[in-house]
Amino acid sequence: MITDYLFMFGWGLIVFSSFIGWGTVPATLLRLKTSNDWGLQAGIGMAFLLFVGGLLSLASVVSSALMIGLTLIGALLWVFDLYRRTIRISIPSRFQILLYLFVGAVVILRYASVVHYQAYSCPDDNIAYFPFIARLLETGTLLDPFSMRRLAAYGGQTFLQAFIGAVGSEENAFLMDRGIAVIISYGLVLGFFRDRTTYGIMPYAIALLVIIVLPFPLLNSASHITGLVMFLTLFRTLELIPASAQTETRSIWVIALIIAAAASLRAHFLAAAALSVIFYWFNAALAHRQSWYKAITALAHTGSASVLCLLPWMVLQQYSSGSFLYPVFRGNHRADFENYSAVLSIGEHLQFFTNTVTDPKLLLFILPVVLLAVRRSYSAVLALYVGSLLTTAALIWVFTLSDVENIHRYVAPFLTAAFIATLVSFVRDAREPSASADTGFSSLPVGDKIIGAAMICLLPLMMTKDVERLTDRWGKVGLSPADRLHYRQMQAAIPTGASVMTVVNHPYALDYHRNIISAIDIPGAASPDPGVPYFHGPIAFKRYFLNQGIAYLAYENFDQPGACLYGRQRWQFYLSGDVPVWKMGAKYYLDLMQTLEKLAETENVVFKDHDFTVVQLRPR
């Protein structure tokens, strides 16, 4: 256990260094000054690899060996970049050494606590996100036409997780989002104070407070902190490039690369990133009295470049799920299934909207926008906030069957990035630079002492939680070797190369190279035309899957206690409950379970034990 842990701990740091190394490629080609700004360089490197990931996934060539190769090449690029740069090394004072040790301990402890982290979200991670990683590494691509979660995301987050999955397992799947991305986010905030030698402890303290202490809604292994990385990278890039150079070709391609990278993580990130850039350029045209023709032309070029960078992911999603731009084009999303929106009157819409935006969970991150009214020079900050608020408003207006917690989770990556950008901008400008960074704590300005005291008081609590997270999960696994073997024994009953539809609780334990495996992650939500015929009985069900080229159905015992998602008792409870989203979904889950069991009574059962049943559909 300790050997595996140390190996993955070290591998994650190599992946992190690889992002920095790959960041030198677009930075050099596009002449972006990122020297000695490792956070920004890592963010740009992540964006560049997400573009590369789209090409590789579309070509169906992703593999563990390829991901390891990309990682090692990036790490070598980082070493070469260090070698060719002239770095002045000054001897730090004792106070600085203590500061660096404290900061490093806090960040590395957060990273260490998620190397082996098994706080899985059963409906999301077990059923969809972990299987995506296995599917990508074992088949080279991401084709899953029956998955709603595949339709709702291009696949960029899965590609990032594959850097970890190439040498690890789903036990390490959180390392990318909650470990490596946290370090990069810290570096992005720290790099905002580029001349850190004149700011004393403030940059380090502020970065720790907003990245480690600031509450961030986390539920599963999907894009949370990686999304924050992309939006902080977008802000830092806009802030770094002079307004006069924003319409140059090289600047356009940098911005387009980051927009596409953000969109590859989650579809709605595209709206927030694009709106931010649109507002930034129109605001720049007004403030600097630039040519409107020039601004609109640059905007059109950026849109075209963004589409080109995102195009591989768009084509792959079209091929997999029938939509290159969801939810504008619904693709395999069934029109009669809506799991987030309810038909409301204008008055009900306004009430839901008002209640959501005034909830403290969201209001905390919305209020700082009023500070920008007196700081019009903060054009990049204002642009990020406008794009974030417009996207947040749209999601609240649409997700009327959702709640504040879920909506906050969807908007947190860009809304938190805007909050952080505003906070660090005001703190940096309000703080008078000190004459020297070599002073001790007693010699610091009052404001720095307050920030330092807050850091000293709050961080031990966060560090204690990280230690508890690490020790609580130590030695535990999400799926035992015996259970994994059981899955493989079940799959062995299906001929090699045959297509199979699975309704099981841990589909990531299957061999995606051996069979063409499809999965229903949300019954009723997504399927190729004309759609899975729920509520029409087993004969229609059988006919549909045979027409889709699927002759085998594998499902788990729906009555076993403690089932992850496909448990009959769970959905019977939801069916009689008063939560609309679960009540509506329960009908589909229960019909799916009943139909599969009826097919097992009339079709050829090729495998059956207490846990699994595999049914062969026989053409007639």
Structure in words:
With 620 residues, the protein is mainly alpha-helical. It folds into 2 domains: 2-317 and 434-472, no CATH class; 481-616, no CATH class. It is 61% helix and 4% strand. It is built from 22 helices and 5 strands. The protein has helices at residues 2-29, 38-58, 64-84, 94-112, 122-139, 148-151, 156-165, 175-192, 202-213, 225-240, 249-265, 269-287, 292-321, 346-357, 360-366, 379-398, 404-430, 446-472, 481-491, 537-547, 568-575, 580-602, and strands at residues 499-503, 516-519, 552-556, 604-608, 612-616. Strands 2-1-3-5-4 form a 5-stranded mixed β-sheet, with helices on both faces. Helix 4 runs antiparallel to helix 8 (175-192). It is globular. The termini are far apart. The mean pLDDT is 87.
In terms of DSSP E residues, the strand content is under 5%
| Estimated structural class | mainly alpha
| End-to-end separation | 53 Å
Radius of gyration based on Cα positions: 25 Å
Runs with pLDDT <50, length 5+? none
Counting structural domains, the number is 2
State the shape: globular
- What oligomeric assembly is this protein in? single chain
How does the SSE layout of this entry go?
Layout: H1 2-29, H2 38-58, H3 64-84, H4 94-112, H5 122-139, H6 148-151, H7 156-165, H8 175-192, H9 202-213, H10 225-240, H11 249-265, H12 269-287, H13 292-321, H14 346-357, H15 360-366, H16 379-398, H17 404-430, H18 446-472, H19 481-491, E1 499-503, E2 516-519, H20 537-547, E3 552-556, H21 568-575, H22 580-602, E4 604-608, E5 612-616
Parallel strand pairs: 1-2, 1-3
Antiparallel strand pairs: 3-5, 4-5
